[in-house]
Amino acid sequence: MTNNTELLQSLGVALGLGLLVGMQREWEHNRLAGLRTFAFVSLFGALSGMLAQAHGGWVLGAALVAFAVTTVPAYIVQLRDKEADPGLTTEIALLVMFATGAITMLGHQMVSVVVAGSVLVLLQGKKTLHQMVHKIGENDLREIARLVLIGLVILPLLPNKSYGYGGVLNPFAIWLMVVLIVGINLAAYLASKFLGHSRGAAVAGILGGLVSSTATTASASRRSQNQQSHAKPLAVITLISAAVVFGRVSVEVMIFGPEVLGKMLPPLLAMMALTGAIAGAAYRFLMKSELQPSDEPPPSELKGAVMFGLLYVIVLFAVSYAKERFGHAGLFTVAAISGLTDMDAITLSTTSLSNSGQLDPATAWRVILTGGLANILFKTGLILSLGSRAFIKPVLMGFVATFIAGAAILAFWP
To answer: Of the residues 116, 134, 152, which one is the last residue of a structural domain?
Structure first.
């Protein structure tokens, strides 16, 4: 299973890179190879490399010959006859399926099924994929390329090691926050463009909550300053992402605290339900007139994301200093400090302690919820310092309601 997972991850990367380059060629109306053809070529190359590992390097040579035999005639046709269609999708798909059949005999049935399913989706989704690419403008492509640069080129080059006071200066982790802000912002923009503000806001909010609600709040706040007419959808995205955080926390407790679920989970689920209701109310009342696809320009948030990265570093240093000063004796103090930037760390550590019998479950869930409320306060500071007035009002109302609900659960839950 581990081997199959690693193979699927490698094939997924190859497929994604092929789609990325193919999208640009499709947008340029290249007649020889477009979105799907580049995806198939990358997939065929990855499968050929996989077969070469089992049978030797000659497989790659044979694959290259097969690819040349397929593509050269089509290129010659394009040069001679401008009216002819030299598309290679079907031919390359045949090569992919040949390689897929070969890996099946090597014992990789699950991988071959996933690859064949991907081929079917790419072939069947021709019209949808082409329409999607043609909706993307030149500025959109530029922002996507920028995200690729900072995420796939710069990020892997940075050292994933801790430096400085308290070991909090990690170049990889800090730049990852920059990548997340740019990526979430771009994802929210594309979701709004293709799905309309209403559905796009829901998708972007859920995605932001799963990845980083703090980064989502920062990016939405900055974007509201530049695009004040979109303050309502951005407010909905922020509130949905905040609600998803408590859903993510509940899942982590279920996974890492099976022995204490009965005592820890109910109050956290209640908090999740309350924040979900607040986000649902915001979605219903703020999105009534926001149903049309967006024609706004793509966000360019790199500068703002870098500034937030610097702010993030300052907060990390402050958290490290406070932890050293207070020590780990004051669990609630540590939870409040840790929750400013990261809910996962305090949730996992506290749940593990409770599951092993070292911490009372009633205290454990209160510690986690205290971290969650601290996180709400930190994000409140972000919206007040970065957001526009039209954005701040609905988000602040939602955050205040969330904080009151959490404080009530802390105070009155038996």
So the answer is: 134
